[in-house]
Input
Amino acid sequence: MRAYLKTYGCTLNQADSELMANVLNEAGISIAKSEGEADVIVVNTCTVKTPTEQKILNAIEKLEKKGKKIVVSGCMASANQDLIERHAGHASIITTSNIDMIDEAVLDAYDGKRVIFDDYVRKDKLSLFRDSDSIIAKVPVSEGCLSNCGFCGTKFSRGPLNSFSEDLVVNAVAISARRGAREIQLTSQDIGAYGLDRRTNIAMLMDRLAKIEGDFKIRIGMLNPEHLGKYLEGFINALQSDRFYKFVHIPVQSGSDKVLNEMKRAYSIEQFDDHVAKIRDVIPDATIETDVIVGYPTETEEDFEKTLEFIKRTKPNVVNMCKFWARPHTAASKLTQLPNSVITKRSARFARVVRQTQQSINDAFVGNVLTALVTEMDERSFAARADNYKKIIIKRGASNVSLGSTVNVRIGSASCNVLYGIPIEATQ
Output
């Protein structure tokens, strides 16, 4: 029999799908390339934003109406089972901590049995990791978190922090490198909290990973600033290794200390600025990525102006903006919500400031030569990553560019999101 894995959401969700594929393969269940080829469809869900959630619910409802056999996994399966049952009452459900049982769920669904595996069990899910021949390998290092943010529903999906064994992480990275992975993405709900339940931290793990032999780069996933300060010096020291992209994803969420406090974010803007300043002081070309929520229920015009000032002052290289969406069961969902018109107006203004900021940063790269690792391709172009994880688009046609190659690229132009380059020579 065959199962199709349909994945929504973040890199951690994508990594979970790869782990589930391993379990299915070992049970003799092959992975279909499309829904039409599958006997059972596994929908790995996300619940961060309302639009994404609605898209998923519409998808599983259509599958149910077509008579498809469905297993719903992921964050929605863990946090909002009632929604799933309303839209696809015959679908089986398996929560994030039970993905090692996905073979049982799929086999039962194939036999027409609806099952729900939703016990919370603390497991080292990285034990499910198997080798892969992908250019980009995704290695989960933990799930859950130590935070209690007022807006986030993922806490209800992933539970408390569960860091996976350092030895298993090191082994997964080493195996991926031996199998030909050129980029390895360490992923987690919050890598900043990694190891704090094991008397270690991400900086200590990075020191071990830097010693692995091979020709590959590691991208460190999102770190919440409230934890980064506990080991910042060690993190900066580790990041200087050639093994790692000079890339740091630190979500600020708001430029107002008042809003951060109301969000239950355990840091101040001054602390955030200090983290960024120390990183840039040692690694000036580091790419700083951040996330911002626009329209939190308690955000005033003054708070919003402070967020705009933050962007203009700090000049993050990448900014992910999200309009506030009230998520079920969260503290923020119980607050009086701002009018949609206000959120829309602020979001448009914020997006303009971000585009201008990022465009000015990227324009400074035009004319420079960067060394980049080619990690993706489509019919028209390659996508490569510079040492600081800047994305570079290269038109297909150059003889010295192929998937997995490292090339020197002269930047000819830039948009606010990517650089456009011309390869000038192959370095390997």
The CA atoms of residues 78 and 95 lie 5 Å apart.
